[in-house]
Amino acid sequence: MDERPHTLRELLRQHIPSLYAFAFQVSNNRQEAERFVFELCQEAVRRGDALLADPDPGRTLLSTIARSMEQNLGRKTDHTFDSLDELLRSDITRPIDLRTAGSLETDPNRIHGLLWELKRTCLGAVLGCLPPGVRLSFVLTDLLGYQPPEAAALLDIKESAYRVRLTRARKRIEDYLTPRCYHVDRHNPCTCPGRLMIALDADFIRDVSHVDEIPAEPHDTGGPRREIGGLYRSLPQVRLSDMEIDRLLPPA
Q1: CB of 40 closer than 8 Å to CB of 67
Q2: Res 38 pLDDT > 90
Q3: Nearest Cα to 77, choosing from 7, 172, 190, 144?
Q4: In the chain, N or C terminus with fewer CB closer than 10 Å?
Q5: Cβ contact 159:149 at 8 Å
Q6: What would the pLDDT profile of 191-208 be if each residue is shown by its tens digit?
Q7: How far apart are CA 182 and CA 74, in angstroms?
Q8: Confidence (pLDDT) at 95
C-alpha cells in the first residue's frame, strides 16, 4: 500500500495525472484541461491542511474539478453534431495521398499517429457537443466507472437528475455514432483513413506532438465496439511530463 502523502505537493503530484486526463476527457482540449488543474491546485492551497487530513482526498479533488468544469465550461461548444458533419463528412471520402500531404510525403510513418489523433479528436468532439453536465455524467460513469449514486454525490446533485443526464448522454452519442462511425460498425461510411486529409486541411487535427501517447497497434485494432463506453475507454489517455506537472504544483 502506498504511504499517505505528507505534504500538499506530494498529494497533488500523486493525483494530477488522473485529474488532467479527466479534465481532457471532458474538455477535449489540453490547454483547458491544464487550466482547470492549475486552478484546482490553487484551490487546494487555500484548503491547506484540511485536504491533507481528508480521508479520501482523491475523491474530493475529483469532485471539486468536476463541479468547476460544469460551472465554467459554459453552454457554447466548439462543435455541434451538424457542424461536425459539415466539417468532416460534407466532402466525399478522400484517400491518403502522400504526394499532396505536405511533410507526410517525407515521413509516412506519421500517418499511424495521425490516425490515432483523428480518432481521439473526433470522438472527443462528439462528446463535446453535449452540455457540460450531460458530458460529465458520461465521463464519470461510462469512462471512470462511478455508479450513479456516487457520481451524483460528486456533482452534488440528485441521483434522479444524474440518471436523466446519463441517459441523455448515452442516447445522443449512440444516435450520432451508430450510423456513421466505422469503429462502431464496419459497414459505416466514416473511416479515419478516408477523412484524414479532410481533417488536416480543415485544421481539425494537427501534427502529433505527444508521440509517447500513441499506441503501437493500429487505430482500428480490436474490431468494432458497439458499446460506446468501451469505444471511448479504448482511446489513449493524455499525459503530462514531469516538467508540466511541476509547473502546475504550488511552490515548495
Answers
A1: no
A2: yes
A3: 172
A4: N
A5: yes
A6: 999 999 889 888 999 877
A7: 31
A8: 67
Distances in whole angstroms, Cα of residue 229 to Cα of each of 80, 129, 142: 20, 16, 5
List of residues 6+ apart from 3 with CB closer than 8 A: none
Closest Cα partner for 192 from 200, 184, 182? 182
Which residue reads 460513469 in cell numbers?
141
Q: Which residues pair with 190 in a beta bridge?
A: 181
Domains and CATH numbers, the chain: 8-248 (1.20.140.160)
Which residues does 12 contact at the CB level (< 8 Å), separation at least 6? 41, 44, 248, 249, 250
Buried b (16+ CB within 10 A) or exposed e, 201-239: eeebbeebeeeebbeeeebbeeeebeebbebbebbeebe
Which residues, 6 or more positions from 61, have their beta carbon under 8 angstroms from its beta carbon? 15, 19, 40, 44, 51
Write the pLDDT tens digit of every residue in 118-162.
999 999 999 999 999 999 999 999 999 999 999 999 999 999 999
Of 33, 201, 220, give the one whose Cα is nearest residue 120.
220
- What's the first-to-final CA gap in the chain, in angstroms? 25
pTM: 0.91
181 forms bridges with which residues in the sheet?
Answer: 190
Contact 115, 196 (CB under 8 A): yes
Residues 64-83 have pLDDT tens digits of 999 999 999 877 677 899 99
3-state secondary structure of 74: coil
Q: 7: which DSSP letter?
A: S
DSSP string, 162-215: HHHHHHHHHHHHHHHHTTTBTTT-TTSSB-HHHHHHHHHHTTSS---S-GGGS-
Handedness of CA 198, 200, 204, 209 (dihedral sign): positive
